[in-house]
Amino acid sequence: MYEKDGEKYFVVDEHIHFWDASPENTTNKYGEGFIKCFYDYHKNLSPEEYVWSLEKYRKYSEEDMMHDLFEVGHVDVGIFQSTYLSDFYNTGFNTLERNSVLKDKYPDKFIVNGSFDPRFEQKGLEAFERQIQEHSLKGVKLYTAEWNGDSHGWELDDEWSLKHLDKCVEHGVKNIHVHKGPTIWPLNKDSFDVADVDRVASMYPELNFIVEHVGLPRLEDFCWIGTQEPNVYGGLAVAMPFIHAKPRYFAQIIGELLYWIGEDRILFASDYALWQPKWLVEKFVDFQYPGDPEFDDYAEITPDIKRKILGLNAAKLYDLRVPDELQLVTVGEDTGFDVTEKPATER
After folding, report:
1. Which residues does the UniProt record annotate as the domain Amidohydrolase-related (predicted)?
2. Quick one: which of 271, 263, 265, 286 has its CA closest to 239?
């Protein structure tokens, strides 16, 4: 929880990792290049006092994570987004198995999402179903540019991907998080294109598609998709640190998202350990648009809108119990949301 000026905020960090990119776990030059590209994002977009050494960044400790998220980072619940990158790392980069150790140890602090790769076809589908049952999954993280042998990417509407999404529907795994943002070397930028989100969102209205990194650098494409697909959400991982490094760019991003998809479908994320939630939460609570005409057509960001983005929207997707004092004042049903508000497209 974060409190400032009498306002309280329930914080759900919907995109975190407990990765191992140590030299001992790195398979090849691609794994080496991947983590160094990650580190460049971390170093170039963080305030100086939050920049780690590369050695620590490659493999940080459980103690580091618990401190940065829960002791000082204002986070109430963190959601692990499992990513394997098995072609680059011997035991995987940020795996369900590794993340689940912390989930089991701190069950009230973490949610762990699974993952699937449709290129494993029937064998992968069977393994995915076991994963769902063993871990009671509520969500998955998909990485459509991940390498798998000679294949350097896949699309959400590929035949075997649809079979996996059918399993999600069958077992109630309703939250589909998809990396659709900046590329990381050596992955292919075009494999992160947002077009396939549009296709599957229409096919699976019972699923929620959370577009991580809000499609950057394809923000406009994402916004047009999100405004016509009511089950498409925007995850702010990677967008958030621009609140420090390029605040006018962040203002444009958040202003466009609020206009096109509205305040109920935007989710806060630090992308830990790319960035630490403490400074992101604090800067976002303080955030106001720059005071010049370029931003005059953007709606005000109120404390209640910030509450939704920082935690209440994700809490709703994952059926998390939010303490009464941290909910919004509601009209009608006890949802934590003002049911009298108009949809974004009607404002």
Report:
1. 12-320
2. 271
Contact (Cβ atoms closer than 8 angstroms) between residue 146 and residue 138: no
Q: Write down the pTM of the prediction.
A: 0.93
Q: Do residues 281 and 307 touch, judged by C-beta distance below 8 A? A: no
Q: What is the CA radius of gyration of the chain?
A: 19
H-state helical runs in the chain: 29-45, 54-58, 62-66, 96-105, 121-135, 159-171, 195-203, 219-228, 242-245, 247-260, 277-286, 303-307, 313-317
The pLDDT tens digits along the chain (347 residues) read 999 999 999 999 999 999 999 999 999 999 999 999 999 999 999 999 999 999 999 999 999 999 999 999 999 999 999 999 999 999 999 999 999 999 999 999 999 999 999 999 999 999 999 999 999 999 999 999 999 999 999 999 999 999 999 999 999 999 999 999 998 999 988 899 999 999 999 999 999 999 999 999 999 999 999 999 999 999 999 999 999 999 999 999 999 999 999 999 999 999 999 999 999 999 999 999 998 888 989 988 999 999 999 999 999 999 999 999 999 865 444 444 343 333 344 43
Q: Which residues contact 108 (CB under 8 A, 6 or more apart)?
A: 77
Domains parsed from the chain with CATH numbers: 2-346 (3.20.20.140)
**DSSP label of 312:** I
173 with 138: CB under 8 angstroms? yes
Q: What's the sign of the alpha-carbon dihedral 45, 25, 192, 160? A: negative
